Amino acid sequence: MSTTFEVATEGAGVMTASDLEQENAFEGTVGDHTVKDARMECRGVDVYYGEKRAIRNVSLDIGKREVVSMIGPSGCGKSTFLRCLNRMNDEIPGCRVTGTIKLDGVEIYDKKLEVVPLRAQVGMVFQKPNPFPKSIYENIAYGPRIHGIANNKAELEELVEQSLHKAGLWDEVKDQLDQPGTDLSGGQQQRLCIARTISVSPEVILMDEPCSALDPIATAKIEELIDELRENFSIAIVTHSMQQAARVSQRTAYFHLGDLVEVGETNQIFTSPNHKLTEDYITGRFG
Ligand SMILES: Nc1ncnc2c1ncn2[C@@H]1O[C@H](COP(=O)(O)OP(=O)(O)OP(=O)(O)O)[C@@H](O)[C@H]1O
Ligand SMILES: [Mg+2]
Predict the structure, then answer these.
(1) Which of 7, 96, 107, 209 has its CA 20 to 30 A from that of 83?
(2) Quick check: 12 pLDDT over 50?
């Protein structure tokens, strides 16, 4: 089979007769959705917006020190699934999540669990960089302060520096920490947002198309950063770029119309997919 890395999403939101056939015929995820060293374990997850089911019976592990990429046509439920992992869907009226999602063995949908600390443990980086309208320093210091992570000013300063270092931004901003975060370039703003996420010591970082608003150079920097961050964090990234998924992730999950069709080693998914739908998508035949 020849493999191209063309992204084929045009018209993907329209359901064709064969999609409907697939919806009825879908027999479960192909590939092993488990990993030995799971940080998060999702089992039988369904997500509804009102009556409409956007995610159907998805089971997937996210391992320690790995990057999992989530790919698939527009509207297939990637963002919806990603948002389940830190209960961001709680904010959407009418959205309901069933099934189980555990972080280090603890059910995150347990009614007793507080979501604010959860969202520090499972941080999120969005498509469009969204720094606070505050100084670079304050963008990073805010989280550790509200989560009580730093005990005094010296500790906080140290944490700000460390976080900016880890996000590969320190050298570029160390002399302008009091300048507005919003004055930075798009790529720098995205690294600032990553530094902000890191500053509260997360275990998992969720990224929803983090490079789609960036130029190729800024994208390359973020991709390098993702590779470095993998040593300390688990990362789940949604991307429309199959090249990006191939470059940054060790495992890839292919979603289609709310189903997790196939999951496996990234290399296997892109060179010898086992499901016809995965093959159609990666060879650009879908859509
Ligand atoms: N807030 C919402 N209210 C109602 N339906 C929603 C909402 N968000 C998403 N949906 C629906 O859920 C389905 C999955 O959407 P989602 O945004 O998760 O897809 P996606 O794979 O991230 O797409 P894209 O690649 O375009 O970002 C779509 O049918 C969408 O219309
Ligand atoms: Mg999305």
Answers:
(1) 7
(2) no
Output phi, psi for 198, to 5 deg: -65, -30
**All residues with CB under 5 Å from ion ligand 2:** 79
Domain boundaries 17-130+194-282, corresponding CATH code: 3.40.50.300
pLDDT of residue 27: 84
Test site for ligand 1: of 46, 76, 241, 281, most ligand atoms within 8 A of the Cβ? 76
Residue extents of the structural domains in the chain: 17-130+194-282
**In percent, how much of the chain has pLDDT > 90?**
86
Q: Which residues lie below 8 Å from residue 114, measured CB to CB, with a gap of 6+?
A: none
Question: Is the CB of 15 within 6 Å of ligand 1?
Answer: no
Distance 208 CA to ligand 2 centre (A): 7
In single-letter form, the type of residue at position 133 comes to P
Does residue 49 line the site of ligand 1, with CB under 6 A? yes
pTM for the full predicted model: 0.90
How far from 69 is each of 17, 91, 275, CA to CA, in Å? 28, 24, 17
